[in-house]
Each structure stands twice: as C-alpha cells, then as structure tokens.
Amino acid sequence: MTDNHHSCNNMKVLKFGGTSVGSAERIRNVARLISGRGQNIVVLSAMSGTTNTLVEISDYLYKHNVNGAKEIINDLERKYRQVVALLFTDVEVRMEADEEVAAIFSLLRSLARDSFTSFEEREILAQGELLSTKLMHLYLRESGINSGFLPALEYMRTDKNGEADMDYIRVHLRALLEENPDADLYITQGYICRNAYGETDNLRRGGSDLTASLIGAALMAKEIEIWTDIDGMHNNDPRFVEGTTPVAELHFDEAAELAYFGAKILHPTCVLPAKVNNIPVRLLNTMEPSARGTLIHNVDTSGSIKAVAAKDDIIAIKIKSSRMMLASGFMHRVFEIFDNYKRPIDMIATSEVGVSVTVDSPLKLEHIVDELREIGTVTIDRDMVIICVVGDLEWHNKGFEAEALAALHDIPVRMISYGGSNYNISFLVSKEDKIPALRALQKRLFGNHDNIAD
Ligand code: ASP
Ligand code: MG
Predict the structure, then answer these.
(1) 436 CA to centre of ligand 2 in angstroms
(2) pLDDT, position 264
C-alpha cells in the first residue's frame, strides 16, 4: 500500500493507562503531553475504576438484579458528569460532552435488562474506552487541537481464533487515517475491538497495551510509548529494596523474563506484535514526563546485569528416580504427568539420580504427586520464591553468574537454573530468604561499589 499523505513510519503510538486519564486534571495533563509532538496515534484506556465498575454492572445483570445494576450505572454517570463539569470551560463544548456522556449512559441503561448474555456484557465493557476517548477528543478541540477520532470498532478486529486480524487492521486503520490526513494527532480506544462475527468484543483485561502494539505493527510506527505512573521498569522490587533505579534499556526477551517474575508493567503477549516487527517500546511516567524511562527493543546490550525480580508462592517438587536411574524415558514420564493435568513447569534442575521442578500453583498437585510416586521418591518444598537475575548471561561472558552466586553466599539456595536463555539465571530460595536475597543482589550487582556491569 502506498502512503500519499502519511509517512506512518514517522508516527509514534502513545498509550495512556487508566490512572493517566483518571480525572479531569489527569486528562488535561495527558492533553499537554500529546500535543505539539506531531501526528501520533494516542491510545487511551478507560478512566481508572471504570472497567471494574462495568464488570460489576454485568455481574449484577447475570444475576438478574437489574435494579442493582441501574443503581451502579447512575453512580457512574454522576462521576462522569462531574468530570465534564471540571474539564470543560467552553459552554458549547461542555454541552456536547454532556450529550455524549448522556448517550453512552442511556445505552448502558438499555443494555441493563433481564435477558443478559455475553453479547450485552461486551457492549457494556466497551463503553469505558468510548467515554475516555470522547472526553479527550472534545477537550483537545476546546484547546484548539484538531484531533482525528479513530473508532477502534471500525478497524480493530480479531479472527475466528480470537487472534488479531492484522490484514484487516492494517487496511482499515490506514483508510481511517486517509480520511482525515490533516489532523494534528489521532485519538483511539484501547482494549475494544470487533470479533470475526462483527460483534463488539475486547482484547481482555489490560488489553490496551495490546492495542498499542497492534497499531504500531500495523503502521510500522517508529516507536510505541506506554505511559503509566511509574518511571519505567526498576532494577529490583522497590517494595522490598531501597535505592532501586529504572532500567534504561532492555531486550524484549529480558522484559519478557521480568514480566513473568512479577514486574507487571508489560505483558509479554501484549508486546509481541511490537517485538516481531522490531518496533521499540518505551515505558514513560506521566507524573515525571522528562524522565527517560525504559526502552525495550531487540538490541542486545552486552556486558551488564539489568534487573532482579522475584516470584512468590512457588512449590518445588523433587523426584528421585529409584529403579530407573540413567534409564531413558524417566524425564519424559515426569513431564507427561504434569502435562496430563495441564500444569506448566517453570524451573527445572536435573542430576543423574533425580530432577527438581517448580510450579506456581498447588492446582492438581495431589494427583500429580500420586502419579509421580509410581516412578520415584517425591519431596515437596512449599512457600518457595524464584529470584531471577536478568541481563547479559550469554554463557561465554565471564563473571556475571559468579557475581550473582557470590551475592547469595549467606543464603540457602534450593535450586539454580542457568543456560535456558541468554538472559537469565534463577535461584529458588525459601520465603524467609526472599528479601535478604533481593537486597544482597541489589548491593552486589547495582551497589555503589564498582559494579562489574559497568
Ligand atoms: N480498560 C481495560 C482494563 O481495565 C483495558 C486496559 O486498561 O488496558 O482492563
Ligand atoms: Mg558465563
């Protein structure tokens, strides 16, 4: 497809989460952040709390409590009326905003009926992003900014497998941009889409990041910015460790490792379209817009340890092979048992006489252990924590894994996993040792003394 008006690859996608647009004041703040930066596409979540409230309304309706649902709808409408009153100064624009809000709430009331299915539920869940984007669009207009409104329901689409329909998205999004080539910037809804049958649907909770990533991929955008109220991904857990700092740069694979280990800023599946299309993702903070945040891309920055993360509530299971020592098929049998119960294994450590694995939930554990006892002696350690060190751990490099191990010299370590990727080494420790381990690693890897990572 040729670009006459748009050189999309100069565009950026700027995504703002629910707290970033959570009040009239925050909406104004975002408007300042997005204006004067060129023709970018701005993706908004619903105002914070709204999606949860819409879920609650649906729950009442599933239980056939229509009056209960309507009361919550009324409360929510009052909240939006207040936002409108605070946000707009121009009387005409305010009236228009009031009408938009009224229309959405009368739609919500019409969906609040006794015969309630997932069809109505998905319509209800879509209203949060429609509200936030309409308010932003009108506020920009009041501020003299010509924003183009891109209705996500006209281009964001999933196929019969529930996967993003990239071709559809590309064609329809570009067509919408061509319709309004002179806009200063564009506003669109995160999270919402249509499914293969044309019904209103969504990309699951937290789906606005996926929207941003899909738009970035569809337009081959220059960069995707994910704005939250944290200054990027930190090098350790600030709840337990003092002196953590934002990580300047991460490889997508490092970010994926960290996401599993509880760094909840970005879900790996949400950034997959960006990763495979080689579009950098930058995490930025609306409360501190000039901070450099964290850049996530496909570039390896060798020679440094980037971050430490932990995952709680891990169960370690050791299976010591009795008769089948050295026999082939033992490992296969172990994995098969977990697989039969659809329980994923996280860490693995093996020796000639046995294997230790971890799971992050006790689901089906009794059955699994029962079957494992047929092939070996089983020992279980509960309340364990995986401590994951992420960075340049490509095996040829010397010293990094040694540094991590050295940091833990006073801490009993139950399992170690290294070499599964170029980016991490993981340790399993008991719950009581989690905070001491995180602090010891912080001090040794990122402390004031000379860091081998520098
Ligand atoms: N509003 C949706 C949610 O709260 C989508 C998002 O914010 O990413 O899950
Ligand atoms: Mg090495």
Answers:
(1) 24
(2) 63
Q: Residue 47 has which token pair?
A: 């105002």
- Return d(Cα 387, Cα 347) in angstroms, integer: 11
What is the number of the ligand 1 atom nearest to the C-alpha of 17? 7
Task: Choose among 407, 404, 408, 368: nearest CA to 389.
Answer: 404
Amino acid found at 381: D
Q: What is the structure's pLDDT at 452?
A: 40
Residue 235 CA to residue 232 CA, distance in Å, equals 10
How far apart CA 226 and CA 270 sit, in angstroms, is: 11
Q: Is 20 in the pocket of ligand 1 (CB under 6 A)?
A: no
Strand 185-189 and strand 147-150: pairing? parallel
Q: In ligand 1, which atom is closest to the CA atom of 208?
A: 8
Tokens of 109: 């009331």
Separation of 221 CA from ligand 1 center, angstroms?
22
DSSP state of 422: S
123: which residues sit within 8 A by CB, 6+ positions away?
107, 111, 200
444 band by pLDDT with thresholds 50, 70 and 90: very high
Indicate which atom in ligand 1 lies nearest the CA of residue 18.
7
CA 449 to chain centroid, in Å, comes to: 34
User: Side chain identity at 181, as an amino acid letter?
Assistant: P
State in Å: Cα 92 to ligand 1 middle. 30
In angstroms, the CA 114 to CA 62 distance is 8
Q: What pLDDT, on the 0 to 100 scale, is given for residue 453?
A: 42
311-315, 387-391, 393-397: least confidently modelled range: 393-397
Q: How far apart are CA 188 and CA 407, in angstroms?
A: 47
pLDDT mean across residues, the chain: 93
Cα distance between residue 388 and residue 423, in whole Å: 10
Q: How far is CA 307 from CA 259, 304, 412, in A?
A: 11, 9, 21
438 vs 407: CA distance, rounded Å: 9
What is the DSSP secondary-structure string of 168-230?
HHHHHHHHHHHHSTT-SEEEEESSEEE-TTS-EEE--TTTHHHHHHHHHHHHT-SEEEEEESS
Amino acid (1-letter code) at residue 224? I
- For residues 17 and 230, the model is more confident at 17
pLDDT digits (tens, 9 = 90+) for 102-160: 999 999 999 999 999 999 999 999 999 999 999 999 999 999 999 999 999 999 999 99
* pLDDT for 366 beyond 90: yes
Q: Which ligand is nearest to the CA of 399?
A: 2
List residues bridging with 384 in a β-sheet. 314, 430
For the Cβ of 22 lying below 6 angstroms from any atom of ligand 1, the answer is no
What is the share, in percent, of the chain residues with pLDDT greater than 90? Answer: 84
Pocket residue to mutate for ligand 1, from 127, 191, 201, 264, most atoms within 8 A of Cβ: 191
